[in-house]
Amino acid sequence: METLTFPRYSPDDIISYLRSHVLAGAEARNLVKGDVFGNPKLEVLHMIYMRILQKVYGIRLEHFYMMPVNVDIMYPQIFEGFLPVCNLYIHMERLLPVCRINDFQIADVLNPKTKRTARFLSGILNFVNFREFRREVYLTLQLNYKSAMEKHQQLETANQEAAAKLEKLNTVPVEHQAEVKQLTDNIRELEQLLRQDYRRKQTALQEVISQKKSDIAESTRKLNELKVTMATLKEEQEQLKSKIVESPEELKNYKELMKETVKKLKKSKQEVIEKYEGYRDLVEVLPSCQLEVQLYQKKMERQGANVERLASVLSEVRNLEDQLESAQIELKKGKTDEMSLKRLVTAKHEKLSTAEIRIKKKREDVEQYKHTVFEYCNKVQEKRGAVYDKVTAIHKEIQQTRFRIQQLNENAEKEEMKAKEIYLNLKAGLEKRHDSLVKTAKSYAASREDKIAELKKGLLRVQTPGSSS
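== Kinetochore protein NUF2 ==
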């Protein structure tokens, strides 16, 4: 049995598709169902095959009438009538394996059969539909690829600018190198503390996990014990069911025996009563029969006891009959439930089998679809993957640069705050120093004036004795 890898189209669907998508103009208007199916016309079928090849491979009409150049033929005019058919067969033999048809022969071109042509055309139409769908997807991918390339170029320029900025930012000035070293040492110490805390938490978690595993093992052991008890209870239940099934036959036999005994006792009672009545009549006449009457009375008492026993046995039999009827009703219910369950199981099995067949078909179609898609889109995917890798690398570099810029901004803010504090401290010190200098200048000026006055007094003293002399 052939494995179907594409849906079979009806002749009406094939004709309508050929009219609307493959043929055009007068060819589409003049195409009739009888030209392809029933008694197919060779020229119409060849024309359809040629149009499909023109659509798929872009083969021009004159190529079907051209002699191959790499073949030396003595009299090429002999092959003029057969050339189009031969070229058509060569091109169709190349196309149909792509459509998952591998049994195309030259007889299908020269003497086509209806079923085979329907199968070939449905496979070709399926492939043409798939080709059109994937062509649209490929064109959208091409457009997306162009836009991605433009974005990639923009990102590359942005990346280069960011790299230049990073180089500027990464160069730490000599003034801040000591602070940067101190910050790196602090970061390493923090990393060590975090690692120690992580290891401690990991050990605690492993202990908790081991405890949980032991609890789970204990619970699984208890569960296995419960399963064993359940299995034993099920076996006992099956044994009881078998006993319940066997008991109705024994009850029937016991019932029949009891019925026979009841009949015998009734007969014997009737006979005793008749004899008693006869003997009672005789007792009135013959007192000598008293002994026999007494004996018969004793027998009657025994018979009464036997009747009481029989009544108790009959009550037991009735109880057993009621139990048997209830058991039979339960059995009937169980049988009906079993039959309904069997029907449900068979229906579900049928649904599962149909679902499995559909799933297999869908898997085959999906695998074929994937294979063709991978064949068409491998190169594009590789290029797209390379572009995606570059874009992700650029994104990572941008994130790293942003993080570094943020860190540098934070460091710059901290350094600016420190510089402001240093400036304020220096300003306060300078003001204090200026005040002290003003005070010293004032004190120096006052001492200088005092010294000048003393010197003037000294000079006057020196001059006065000279003048007197």
